[in-house]
Specification:
The protein is of the alpha/beta class. Helix content is about 40%, strand content about 15%. It has 18 helices and 15 strands. The N and C termini lie far apart (about 60 Å). It is an enzyme of class 4 (lyase).
């Protein structure tokens, strides 16, 4: 019998997160204070984050223990399955072997609870009563809403306005878990009001929503901010994905030649790749990593590697990352979780080290790849995950052309059950490929902070 699923038992779950910073050949550039532009001290982050998350943010330890209470909640859906995509391989007529780790079995339908749960746990331990956050497509907001329900924390979500309008069911999902969802930009914050005064019809961006969430958190001692991607501790928590996959591939007697992932802020890509990348950095394995991003928001392929703010109101620290400029507002394409102007500083640093190939893909090709995958494997991917699917299919077709059999792994980071309007629009021929606006990016980059 040809095995399809590789399943771990609960007692085989990782007991610690993997911190790739311990294996980097050169350390990351320092995070800078937004006012002084000097290296930030851990205590400078205390208005936004609890002590343990700050410690994890700056840690150089290779392994950071997962608390028992977090492991207990993880076991509600973890370990997640690893699939051998045998039907997709047959449909593509490729000699490649394709595996995908499926994170869509979580309560939120994506990988995001892997960090939402520990973030809520550490905030609860620190006496926090309320969390504020931003969300694009809603997967992160959904995950934090669930985590808030588990730990009895109030959650306020600033949802990018175009997604708020496009995805009413995702909004209802968050509200079902007790979160309050606000369309961003809003009139509830100074940052939101400033944007609305200049652009009354603004469709919003993650940079704007972050400004609103950070502003509210900074004004109250019992309120903290939670971020769903970009930061070091968020990428750290996601490594449970890759650590489980290592054990599952050992079951399969296989190891990847190529790992493909989609990139918006970087957490999903980091989660599947970092444990394997650590092995490459230590000289234990050789393999290729490919990051796929949307052509309408091509941070890695078209952005500038420089210091920038993570938000439009300049409330966040300055970090060195690939950026399109913090004031850049991408068009309202359907992969809302990938509409961020910057890339995770840690991932950006690794790209600069030459360890990752980067590609940008228009949305129509990604939707076509997603439907090819769905009709073969039976899982309808989220629009964000379609970018990884497209990259994996492209690699498999290259194997077909060359006659080489390679092992390809990707992370199917979420399902598309809340994205049916996007698929309806695609199949009706209503979607269009949108390129990023070079003029708007140039304008946004012109406003980068002077260092």
């Amino acid at each position: 019998m040809d095995t399809i699923k590789y399943i771990l038992s609960e007692d085989q779950m990782p007991l610690a997160w993997y911190n790739i910073q311990a294996d980097l050949p050169t350390p990351m550039p320092p995070v800078l204070h937004p006012g002084t532009k000097k290296a930030i001290a851990p205590h400078d982050l205390e208005p936004l984050f609890p002590p343990e998350l700050i410690r994890q943010e700056v840690s150089q330890e290779r392994w950071i223990e997962i608390p028992d209470e977090v492991q207990s909640i993880y076991r509600q859906w973890r370990p997640t399955p690893l699939y051998r995509a045998r039907r997709l391989e047959k449909a593509l007529d490729t000699p490649a072997k394709i595996y995908y780790k499926y994170e869509g079995v979580s309560p939120a339908g994506s990988h995001k609870p892997n960090t939402a749960i520990p973030q809520a746990y550490y905030n609860k331990q620190a006496g926090v009563k309320r969390l504020t956050t931003e969300t694009g497509a809603g997967q992160w907001g959904s995950s934090l809403a669930i985590a808030g329900a588990f730990f009895d924390l109030e959650v306020v979500v600033y949802m990018v306005k175009v997604s708020y309008q496009q995805k009413p069911y995702r909004r209802a999902f968050m509200e079902g878990y007790g979160a309050r969802v606000v369309a961003s930009p809003s009139d509830e914050t100074e940052a939101g009001r400033a944007i609305l005064q200049m652009h009354p019809d603004s469709t919003g961006s993650l940079g704007i929503a972050i400004s609103e969430a950070v502003e509210v958190a900074a004004q109250c001692d019992r309120t903290k901010y939670a971020l769903g991607s970009v930061l070091n501790h968020v990428l750290l928590h996601q490594t449970v994905i890759g650590l489980e996959t290592l054990a599952q591939l050992e079951q399969a007697g296989d190891y990847p030649d190529i790992i493909v992932g989609c990139t918006g802020g970087g957490s999903n890509f980091a989660g599947i790749t970092f444990p394997f990348m650590g092995a490459k950095l230590r000289g234990e394995q050789q393999l290729k990593f490919v990051a796929i991003e949307p052509a309408a928001c091509p941070t890695l392929t078209k952005g500038k590697y420089t210091y920038d703010f993570g938000d439009i109101a300049h409330l966040t620290p300055l970090v060195k990352m690939h950026t399109l400029g913090n004031s850049f507002v991408p068009q309202g394409f359907h992969a809302g979780g990938l509409r961020y102007h910057g890339m995770a500083p840690l991932l950006s640093h690794i790209v600069e080290l030459g360890l990752i190939e980067t590609r940008a893909e228009p949305q129509l090709g990604c939707f076509a790849a997603g439907l090819t995958f769905a009709r073969a494997e039976g899982i309808l991917p989220a629009p964000e995950a379609n970018h990884a699917v497209k990259g994996a299919i492209d690699e498999a077709l290259r194997c077909k052309e060359s006659g080489n059999s390679k092992t390809i792994l990707f992370n199917l980071c979420g399902h598309g059950h809340f994205d049916m309007q996007a698929y309806m629009d695609y199949q009706a021929g209503l979607l269009r490929d949108t390129e990023y606006s070079a003029e708007e990016v140039a304008l946004a980059l012109a406003g980068l902070p002077v260092m």
